[in-house]
Amino acid sequence: MDARDSAPEAERLDRGGVLVIDKPPGPTSHDIVAVVRRRLGGAKIGHTGTLDPFATGVLPLVVGRATRLARYLTASDKEYHAVIRLGRATDTHDLAGAVVSEAPPGTAMPGADTLSALLATFLGTWPQVPPAFSAKMSNGVRAYEQARRGVTLQLAPVQVTVREIEMLSVQGPLVAVRLVSSAGFYVRAFAHDIGLRLGVGACLEELRRTRSGAFGLGGAVTLDKVHQEGLLDHLVPLETLLPGWPSVVVTGEGVARVGHGRDLEAGHCVDGLPPEAGATPFRVLGPDGRLVALAEAAPGPVLHPSVVLV
Length: 310
Prior knowledge:
The chain has helices at 3-15, 29-39, 70-74, 112-120, 143-148, 187-198, 252-259, and strands at 17-23, 45-47, 56-63, 78-86, 88-90, 99-102, 124-128, 137-138, 141-142, 158-171, 174-181, 202-212, 215-216, 221-222, 236-237, 247-249, 282-285, 291-298, 302-308. By secondary structure, the chain is of the alpha+beta class. The two termini are 27 Å apart. It contains seven helices and 19 strands. The longest helix has 13 residues, at 3-15. The strands form four sheets. Strands 1, 2, 3, 4, 7, 10, 11, 12, 13, 14 and 15 form an eleven-stranded mixed β-sheet that branches. Strands 16-17-18-19 form a four-stranded mixed β-sheet. It has three domains: 3-76 and 214-240, Pseudouridine synthase, CATH 3.30.2350.10; 78-212, 2-Layer Sandwich (Pseudouridine synthase); 247-308, PUA domain (Archaeosine Trna-guanine Transglycosylase, Chain: A, domain 4, Roll).
């Protein structure tokens, strides 16, 4: 391939987008990022929320200029299918940890009705204590680094929201659950809390993320396909990201102003400043429909670019 052939691909890579990986069990999220970065010749790549090594499923990677949008994509809701093992508690709250308690053989486990009623109590917004083995910072150090050294930690609770929860099946001590939660929710901690509520202990046996924001398994690429040709064809383009945000179309002059980080006035917008401009951020589109920036309303009134993508 000569320089002329590689130019369009280099341009697509620089512009970037989101590559959704169907993560297999075993590697860390950072391992996946490293694999894709090598495959794409050292391109700028990040993620929008990690998955534990044993977990599988949707892992959206931001590529190129889309890395500038990572913090907005990270804040999206997540959907999971989880399998919780009753009767066993571990230090990491999942099957990979050391067992700290186990129900005696023959211990009666709660039935489906009891479990269904308990799960319903987790709906809504409430304070969740993150696991000690987590990436949360404590005294300037990652919590898991201290936990591995045997330091006893009590992390501060974090407000989380469970929007949907559904019990899928109960097979002996294994309870399968589907749930939709806010960003920052630890399914491992949720499993541990269930064990505490029931008094028998519990840990997370399996976890599969089926959706992260607008990204689902339908558009995901398996790790073996990362090494095949046409990987960039699977990129979700910038223009389709943050679909729930309102948009404003700007003129060519408006694109030039955005490129220099300058505010947009009514005359730079094809239809003037949107009347609903308030605290809501906007997607700023050029005359050709390309996403050129994210902007927020500011006194003037003007739209101030908060993220520039040109």
